[in-house]
Write a structure and sequence with these properties.
The complex is a heterotrimer of chains A (307), B (415) and C (298).
Chain A: H1 7-22, H2 27-52, H3 61-78, H4 82-104, H5 109-129, H6 131-134, E1 140-141, H7 149-172, H8 174-184, H9 186-191, H10 196-222, E2 224-225, H11 227-230, H12 233-246, H13 253-270, H14 278-292, H15 296-306
Antiparallel strand pairs in A: 1-2
Chain B: H1 2-21, E1 36-43, H2 50-69, E2 73-75, E3 78-88, H3 93-105, E4 111-113, H4 118-124, H5 126-131, E5 135-137, E6 153-155, H6 160-176, E7 184-191, H7 194-209, E8 214-222, H8 230-239, E9 243-247, H9 250-262, E10 269-271, H10 279-285, E11 293-296, H11 305-318, H12 324-343, H13 348-356, E12 360-361, E13 369-370, E14 383-388, E15 392-397
Parallel strand pairs in B: 1-3, 1-4, 4-5, 5-6, 7-8, 7-9, 9-10
Antiparallel strand pairs in B: 2-3, 11-14, 12-13, 14-15
Chain C: H1 4-35, H2 42-60, H3 64-85, H4 95-117, E1 132-135, E2 138-141, H5 142-164, H6 166-176, H7 178-183, H8 188-210, H9 222-235, H10 240-256, H11 268-282, H12 286-297
Antiparallel strand pairs in C: 1-2
Helix pairs in contact in C: 1-5, 1-8, 1-9, 1-10, 2-3, 2-4, 2-8, 3-8, 5-6, 6-8, 9-10, 9-11, 9-12
The chains are: A mainly alpha (307), B alpha/beta (415), C mainly alpha (298).
């Protein structure tokens, strides 16, 4: 990868990192920034499997929720330091990814997607009912004293940068090339000796790990966790949407998608007169992208820069 | 490919451009001069809770308009106009929390009015203490809300465990009067939410503390917004209970009681928690809803002057009869405004202290008084109503309430 | 603990609910069968249809059953329009495209409902809402019997349609192999348009009938849609009889779940999701394929 190509992204990261130092009073934007980084992490992670491998999962909330509760339980019940719970949250997500991936990756195309919907929802219903473990429908109330907004911002930034770097590394690596081959034609790839199961599961676990760490950070930020929030179908489909809006299967597409999806939606919701139309806008955007520019916004950019 | 390089450069530029398009950061201001009072609220105006969210919005607005119409709110001797900003969280917890934070940090509101439904209130409740902006909420009644150590949060809804308690007190009275069997066999069905769990805990505790009066023979949960309660109702039928206690929200109440009636179930006493006199429920259930008993925070059937005036005003303005949502939201806003007047300032800490010691008179809730304990929990209680035929409602408990009539226990047609 | 009449009641509940579930799932099954697309707008169609029936009931005092028929006709046209304008462009794209397109349509449908009818829960009461048929100790609600009866008629009607009419045969041909169908002169595009319209009409019809039983608001339909997924997967994704079988399995599981010791009523939806995943992983052809295999080996 030529070093000059990295110049612009590095400049961006530097600018972002400096923001809370230069504007420490802009708590709203710092908070918004943190949540955007979390969503970037989720979108880029999802894209590793949904984009690179072409296996569209609608059940990533299962990983997010499991990791979220891991952090929540270790923190509130066993008094762990929140930061120390994050690797474990990631690992918990990986375990779930293996449990889901091993049987489900045998399914092809839309069958895999439907199965993941079932998995995500099954986890949600279980979490709502396993009161002893998860607090059930009451959710878990977590300590109200948390690190500063800036701490969250920078942690989120570090996480987002890490996951984008890993995603970028993947594209050129054997793992990534194998996934691309699988996406294009699984039978052909396998006939050349590619172990599709191994490749898919490795990618799945890697992406789940980052989703898990993001979930842990998210939970600490909110001081509250509830099954409908962390296991919700809205979250799963949001991850798919961010990838599609930005450009599924590319490196920067999900980043762009997350940047659009989260802050822009917040913006719409905060304008009281647009509130009644927010679903229409969201739905309309989706339809427009699918019909006119399936490559998402990145596809649009490509078209423009080609001129 | 030449375009790859271009893309990589264009992308970050695009992202920065997007960031730049966001509203310009607000300039740091000096402490706002009290020419305007900024109040914020985040409510579910779309999504599963939108119906109630809409009621809260209307009521907050009504209370605000009334104050503004009279010249403004008295703050430290000066009349100040209230500027109320209400945002939609789409019934989503993440958005709810973020938007409240936005109101606190971006709009720099002086005080907050709470959201609706326990889950969203719990998502919001970290914000008041973090930014030292007091919040009065009338939409979350789970007792867990008041166990988190908040100093800047105050509630006007008596918590659900009290709903269970008052129901059991009511039942105990009638058992002692010989109108219900002793011990009373209770079939309990509760929705799987914070709300339902509070209710279930209270009923079970009463039975444990007083097995001579109460025996819980069935204790079963159901999913919020479920569709088919026939298996549950079959279990209830098989339990051979004397009383059926349930805690449900409106759609489940309608579906469950319809199916209950269609299956030919009968109990000497039936309650659906805070459901019963709801207009929509009575329309959907017609005579099947007669004689149901409910525990409520307020009802338009109350005949005291304040309640009657409120009911009239609401009917004239919105063409519907108000329910507890509207009344409690109205009280919530008025309590906040009274606290601000008492504080004589727009300073968060001063408002908070004023609210903590506030004795609000002229509330719509039974007892007409609202004040708070040291956790912010309201020292208010419930009343109980019974549906009567022809869409009538009677207040039946406690007997100290103006116009209260004794309940018809057991329910007619069930012995 | 349970008397025979209670068990009989559970059996009857299972059967009646199965009819309801099957009715809800036919539309989804048809669209999937013909164009291999999961119609995520199915929930939106059911919901909008319920509101249309509500409006017809309020304005013209039309009985919901009649209203459902009218609504079905309306959505037949709307479905065909949606297909021609949008869906046909993603039929041959990766599955994610159609999934998200129709999800977007669902979101728009929800917003439209909020804007037109508001967010309150609505319900329809008819003269027969509380009528029951009594079989000794067991009471059967008329409003539960109706969707069941209708679904039997629909099953028979649809099966006949697919077997005996030219259009039906064309639909079957396109379902099996769109390319081959075109080669033998079938206008696949036209067939697909009609099939999508028909699928939408079936969804709308089910949505209209659901008003007999449930209250609804713009958020309505999501859980039913997920259950429909489970049902068509259980049934094998390819035939209407399969759908009926899938519906029977799910409804029976839900009805008898209370007999499981320690069962929590709020776990009931777990059954649908677990069956969905189990069926996909363990039984890809669904239950229908199991029976087919048995039939063939005899």
């Amino acid at each position: 990868m030529r070093p000059r190509v990295l110049l612009a992204p590095l400049a961006l990261v530097l600018l972002l990192a400096l923001f809370p130092a230069v504007f420490p009073g802009e708590l709203n934007y710092i908070g918004l920034g943190f949540l955007t980084f979390i969503f970037v992490t989720l979108a880029v992670s999802w894209n590793m499997v949904g984009g690179y491998a072409g296996q569209v999962s609608f059940g990533y909330a299962a990983f997010f929720g499991t990791a979220a509760y891991t952090t929540a339980i270790l923190w509130s019940r066993y008094q762990w330091e929140p930061v120390l719970t994050l690797p474990l949250a990631g690992l918990a997500a990986v375990v779930v990814a293996l449990l889901v991936g091993l049987p489900c990756f045998r399914l092809l195309g839309p069958y895999f997607s439907i199965a993941t919907i079932g998995v995500g929802e099954a986890f949600r219903v279980l979490a709502l009912n396993l009161d002893q473990l998860t607090g059930g429908a009451s959710g878990l109330n977590l300590p109200l004293s948390v690190p500063s907004k800036s701490w969250f911002y920078w942690s989120g930034l570090v996480l987002a940068v890490t996951v984008v770097s890993v995603s970028g590394w993947m594209r050129a690596s054997r793992l990534g090339l194998g996934l691309f081959a699988l996406r294009m034609d699984q039978d052909a790839a396998e006939s050349l000796g590619l172990n599709s199961t191994a490749f898919k599961n490795v990618a799945h676990c890697l992406s789940a790990f980052f989703v898990g760490v993001a979930a842990g950070l998210y939970v600490v930020y909110f001081s509250y966790v509830h099954p409908n929030q962390v296991f919700g179908f809205d979250l799963s489909i949001g991850m798919v949407l961010m990838g599609v809006i930005g450009g599924v299967g590319t490196l920067w597409g999900p980043v762009l998608g997350a940047a659009i999806y989260y802050p822009i939606r917040q913006l719409i919701l905060s304008q009281s007169n647009l509130v009644a139309f927010n679903l229409l806008v969201y739905g309309g955007l989706l339809i427009a992208i699918i019909l006119f520019e399936p490559g998402g916004l990145l596809g649009l950019v490509r078209r423009v820069t080609r001129r | 490919m030449v375009s790859v390089n271009r893309q990589v450069r264009v992308l970050p530029a695009l992202l920065l451009l997007l960031a730049g398009c966001a509203p310009a950061p607000a300039q740091p201001q000096a402490a706002p001069a009290p020419t305007e009072l900024k109040i914020g609220a985040v409510l579910p105006l779309t999504g599963p809770f939108s119906a109630s969210g809409g009621y809260f919005q209307q009521a907050y607005q009504l209370a605000t308009d009334e104050v503004n119409g009279a010249g403004g709110l008295d703050v430290g001797g000066k009349k100040v106009q209230i500027s109320l900003k209400i945002l939609d969280d789409g019934s989503d917890a993440t958005k709810s929390r973020s938007l409240v934070e936005q109101l606190a940090t971006q709009e720099k509101v002086n005080a907050l009015l709470g959201g609706y439904d326990t889950v969203l209130v719990q998502a919001q409740q970290g914000v008041p203490d973090q930014y030292k902006i007091p919040m009065v909420e009338g939409g979350g009644a789970a007792s867990a809300i008041f166990t988190r150590g908040n100093k800047y949060l105050f509630g006007t809804l008596a918590t659900i465990d009290d709903l269970g308690n008052i129901t059991m007190d009511f039942l105990k009275y009638w058992i002692d009067q010989g109108k219900l069997p002793k011990p009373l066999r209770i079939a309990l069905a509760w929705e799987n939410t914070d709300h339902g769990k509070d209710y279930q805990a209270a009923v079970n505790k009463a039975a444990k503390d007083d097995p001579g009066h109460f025996q819980v023979v069935l204790d079963q949960s159901f999913d919020l917004n479920g569709s088919d309660f026939t298996p549950l109702l079959t279990q209830i039928k098989a339990a051979n209970a004397d009383a059926f206690l349930s805690d449900a929200h409106l759609p489940d109440f309608i579906t469950m009681h319809r199916q209950y009636t269609q299956l030919g179930l009968k109990h000497k006493f039936v309650t659906y928690g805070a459901r019963g006199p709801d207009q929509k429920g009575r329309e959907a259930l017609s005579s099947a809803a007669d004689y149901l008993v409910a525990g409520l925070w307020w009802t338009p059937a109350l005949t005291d002057q304040g309640s009657r005036k409120f009911t009239e005003t609401w009917k004239t303005k919105f063409n519907v009869t108000p329910d507890w949502f509207q009344a409690l939201a109205y009280d919530t806003a008025r309590v906040l405004y009274a606290g601000i007047t008492k504080a004589g300032s727009t300073d968060g800490d001063k408002i908070r202290d004023a609210l903590a010691g506030l004795q609000f008179e002229g509330a719509l809730v039974p007892g007409n008084k609202i004040s708070f304990d040291q956790t912010g929990k309201p020292k208010t209680s419930y009343l109980m109503t019974q549906n009567l035929p022809n869409n009538e409602v009677a207040v039946v408990w406690p007997s100290s309430i103006e116009g209260a009539k004794p309940a018809m226990v057991p329910m007619p047609g069930t012995t | 603990m349970y008397e025979p009449s209670a068990i009989a009641g559970l059996v009857i509940t299972a059967v009646l609910t199965a009819g309801l579930y099957a009715l809800m799932s036919f539309g989804l099954a048809l669209v999937y069968g013909v164009m291999k697309i999961i119609n995520l707008a199915h929930a939106g169609t059911m919901m909008l249809s319920a509101f249309v029936v509500l409006s017809l009931n309020r304005a013209l005092h039309l009985d919901p059953i009649l209203g459902a028929v009218i609504s079905a006709a309306l959505f037949f046209g709307l479905g065909m329009l949606l297909y021609r304008v949008a869906v046909r462009r993603v039929v041959n794209a990766p599955p994610i495209a159609s999934l998200l397109l129709l999800f977007g349509v669902w979101l728009c449908a929800q917003n439209a409902a909020y804007l037109i009818w508001g967010s309150e829960d609505q319900s329809i009461v008819t003269v027969y809402t509380y009528s029951t048929i009594d079989l000794g100790d067991v009471k059967i609600a008329v409003t539960r019997l109706i969707p069941f009866g209708v679904s039997l008629l629909a099953l028979a009607g649809l099966s006949w349609f697919l077997r005996a009419t030219d259009l039906g045969k064309a639909i079957r041909a396109v379902s099996q192999n769109a390319m081959a169908a075109r080669l033998v002169g079938i206008r696949s595009e036209r067939v697909a348009t009609i099939a999508f319209g028909l699928g939408s009409a079936l969804s709308a019809f089910a949505g209209g009938l659901l008003t007999l039983l449930f209250s609804f608001n713009p958020d309505f339909g999501g859980t039913f849609q997920l259950k429909s997924f489970s049902i068509i997967v259980l049934g094998g994704l390819e035939s209407f009889t399969g759908v009926a079988l899938g519906a029977v399995v799910l409804a029976t599981a839900e009805s008898f779940s209370i007999l499981i010791p320690g069962w929590r009523g709020s776990l009931i939806n777990l059954l649908a999701f677990s069956l969905l995943v189990a069926a996909l992983v363990l039984l890809p052809g669904g239950i229908a394929s199991l029976l087919e295999r048995r039939g063939k080996s005899e």
